[in-house]
User: What shape does this take?
Amino acid sequence: MQPYAGKKAVVTGGTAGMGLATARALVEGGGEVLLTGRTEAHLEAARHALGPRAHVLRSDAASRADIAALGARVAETLGRVDAVFVNAGYARLAPLEETDEGTYDLTFDVNTKGPFFLVQCLAPLVRAGGAFVLTTSVADVTGTPGMGVYSGSKAALRSFARVFAAELAPRGIRVNAVSPGYIKTPTMGVSGASAEDLADFERLGTEETPLGRTGAPEEVARAALFLAFEATFTTGAELPVDGGLAQL
Assistant: This one.
């Protein structure tokens, strides 16, 4: 079965974790995908693992120049696309008194400014009936200590999803968000986390999540692809993939 045969998509932050799982599902389902990342080793590994229907591009999600270059590459390689998964993100946890301006700026550049201008850049390339899916977080509705800047950036992105949905609806383009909780990715969503930190995050995920475990990247991928291709009468929504963490 090839559910995505003939479909073309873009996945940012697509060389690891949730983005890679989404890109892999698209390719295995017969689709063609252009995915981005920053780490050369991850880019090469994704290129090797996914094969010729995956086009891999080094791109900084916070760079306006890289966003423009991505738009040009998408137009050249794929032409019109059916879906864009805006997944690249950044998190560095620190309490209020320890958060510096550099961390604040980088977090909002990657999680908020970058996605805004990416959607602006790629919207003309999305065909009628297509979709954007943005990765938000359970942090956009929780008050977790140490996550102030990250939570604020994702709450802004959630608001963007609503406005983008309203503005692109006349073109028949849907915009939704997928909101992960604890997901077992290589970084558990936190940049610079040590092996000990990762083990602690997974333990917390098991303890705090009502379903009693951390999620898998593939579970987020399935939710993102549902919003992108199957939820044809849904726009402006946020779909939690959090095991009930922010719901119960």
